[in-house]
Every structure is written in C-alpha cells, then in structure tokens.
Predict the 3D structure of the following.
Amino acid sequence: MDRRSFLTDLSRYAVLFSVAPDRWRLPLRTPWADDPFTLGVASGDPLSDRCVIWTRLAPAPFEAMGGMSGNRTTIGWEVAHDEAFERIVRSGRTIAAPELGYSVHVDVEGLDPDRWYFYRFTTGDGASPVGRLRTTPAPGADTPLDFAVCSCQNYEQGLFTAYEHLVGESLDLVTHLGDYIYEYAGADGRVRKHHGFEIVMLDDYRARYAQYKMDPALKAAHAHCPWVVTWDDHEVDNNYAGLVGENTFESVEQMRRRREAAYQAWWENQPVRVPRPEAWADLTIRRTTGWGSLATFHTLDTRQYRSDQACGDGSDPVPCGTWDDPSRTLLGREQEQWLLNGLQSDSARWQVLAQQIMMAPYDRAVGDEVVTSMDQWSGYPHARDHLLRGIADRAPGRTIVLTGDIHSNWVNDLQAGYDRPDRPVIGTEFVGTSISSGGDGQEMGGGVEQAMSDNPHLHWQNSRRGYVRCRVEPEVWTTDYRTVDQVSRPGAAIKTASSWRVERERPGVERTG
C-alpha cells in the first residue's frame, strides 16, 4: 500500500472510531508490562469549538517501534469538565498505527468557546496522565489572553528548569518557536547526554523526541495548557535552508530524505492541526490561530522555503556575495503572500507573527563597518524590508513579532524597512531566550552593550535562560521576561528580568520594570 492510500484509510478509521456506537468495544483489556504513556499528553492548536489532543504510545521508547508490537492499537479518549471525569462531554476511540509511530491526534469538536476542559487516553489497562485544554473565545470576543513564549531546549546543555516555573503561571496558551529537539550526537561532559549518534533517519528522530518528552518538566508544561508549535532548524539540521544542509557532503536527495524523516517525526510528536501532505518532506505548517477579536497568531516557517544563506552562513561584513540579491527569499513567495493577505483581511486588534529568527537588524561591529548574521532576517535584507513595508501598509501599530533561535532576550523596534534610519516604527519585536540552549548564560551577551549605540532600535538584551510571559488586552500589550540564573544544576529560582508595554496604534515600546 502506498503512503497516500494508507493515510486516506487511516483518516477514515480515525473518523469511524471517533464516532463509533456503543456496540464497538475496545478489545480485551491487554495488560501492559510497562507504561505505554511514557511520553505524556499534549493539547494544541485550539479553536473556539475544538482542540487537538495528542499522545504517543512508547512503553520502551528507545527500542524498535517504541517497544510496541507492530500491530495497530485501539486508543480510547475522554474530555470532561472536571479532573475526576465525572462529567464527560466528549469521548471516542481512534487507532495508533506503527506507520505513524503510534502517535494519536484527535481533533475534539463540539466544545464550548472560552472554557477549560480535562482530557486523558486509555488503552488496555493503561491510562495516560490527565492534561488540560481550553478553547479560544468566540469570534468577536475581546477576552484578555495570557500566554508564554518558549524556544530552544537543548537537552545536553541544561535542565528544563524554566518549565517547572511555567506550570505555576496562569496561562491560556504556550507558543513554542522551534528547536524543540537538537539533532547532535551525544557528547560526554554535558549536563545530560543525548541518546545515540547524530539523527538522520525516522527512527532516530522518533527516539530523540522520546528522550526530550520523557523530561518531567516538559511533560508537565504540555499538560498545563494548549501549545501552538512551529519548528526551526534543529528539528532537521543546524541552519539548513530548503534542501541545503549544514554539511556540504549531503546531497539534495539525501537532504530531502532527511527532511522527510524529520518532518514526519515532528508531526508525530506535536499536537498540531496541519494539512496532510502528499509527501512528508513538503509538510506545510503555516497556520493562523485566532483569540476572538483580540489577537490573531500567524505561525510561520522560516526554514523550508528560504534561499541558501549568503557569504558562507556566518556573521560577515556587508555587502558580500549574494547578500544584496533582491531575488533571495526567506518565507518563500507563497507563504509571504499568504501572510500579507492575512494581515490585510484580519481585523483582530493585534496581529502576532510567531516565527523563528530575529527580524530587526543587529550590527555586531562598532563604528562604520556593518557585520550581521546571514542566518537571520538581516541576511535577507530585501525580503525583510519588503515584509516590513507590507506590515506598515496593512497593520501598523498593532503588529507584534515573537522570535526565538538565538538563546537570548531582546526588545526591538520594528521600522518600515532598515534601508534608511528615518523609517517610522511600525511594530515591536520580542525575542525570547532559550529554555536551556547555551547553558547558564549571563545577564548581557558579550559586546552587546558596546554595540548598542550602532543599533538605536535595540532597547534591551539579556542572555539568561527562561521564557517570555505576555498579557494581551484590547488596547495594551505587556511583556515580562522571566529568567533563571542557571540550568546546569536544579533548583534555580525564577525572576522577572524586565517588563515592557506596547499601546495599540501607538508604535514603540516602553519599559515598565
């Protein structure tokens, strides 16, 4: 059976089991020698009447097929008003298939808007942990939103301490901006060690996701509230661009096979609602998430469609090489037009771009020379300024860009292009630090303070670990940078390193703490 036929059949089975009548019973209750729900549960991509719930069966995560038998397995699921599941509102059955890593994605429909629910899965005599989900407010509602921004969680470089504190926050949503896993081989002398060698095959990626998802703090954060997830580079290969990998010896064909494996494993391990692809290597993940009339999140992919990085993909003096070539793209023409059309037509009070790489430029050199990163938007100046002009025309004063990738916190003004210093400010960029990548970090990155005079749009920088907490109201957006001073040892306390305020239709950001 080819993949398309199998996936079509699987979708039909999923629908059949989700609405099965009472005479359809689970098979005889199979005893599990080991817990099949070692990877926990998650919810994501909420809408006003539905939300995706996820789990993946893996009683022995590092064995072939996660320790499963190779047969398809029936899974029961329940959604309830209460944690004791005495008031169940939706329930059903679905199939976990070996061809999809025994992952389960149920898009639970028929829920009420703007309310919390509890969910769980069962199979045989095994029961999953209980997770929480919530639906978004109904269209037209301006209910305030509290959410966190996370990214970059290198298992080897530190503990996921920030997640231990995140679950104590009152949050409606978590936005994860990529580098959920790292592809590198295990190395000695680190805080923790990756299982196995550098990952390139589907089973390798599955095992790496399993290692990360077994972390107790990450499991608790997923169970805490719904997530909206995108990817960055390390879900496939460091700094890859389209079908160009970091290692020059990998051919286009090899990179396509690697991307196919990585994208399938990403889908298998995330609570996402994305179109089923013709080929996994072409999985489309751009999508919007609305929060009533208050905010619309445009979740972007800045890896799959980009032109190769210029000038050897480093931090280089500009101009150089193809850096100034106007034909080079970062989002790809189709995704860029999708975003601009969305900004034009969407009437939500705040437009939010959930994406990976820093959009505002950062000149690393002091003086007249300009040195910039080729992997960030600054490495694609025409594409960046074209997008910023589009924001200026369609949603000025109500656009917030959320960014990850660089393992540090930044607060930036966004101007209607950076080809001239007098371009007006049209939005704000909040760059969030890593969960653990980069180790303990420091209060300010080396050389940043000296270079800030050459970057007047930059307001603040910090290189500790943590997450960004945001509260969105109809007229005001507030952001707190929550940091821990170490991830090399357990028990670090959380603090608010700085706080910021943006007023709708009044471009610019103000520090409040």
Summary: The helical segments are 3-18, 161-166, 202-213, 216-224, 252-268, 333-345, 381-394, 448-451. Residues 1-29 have pLDDT under 50 and may be disordered.
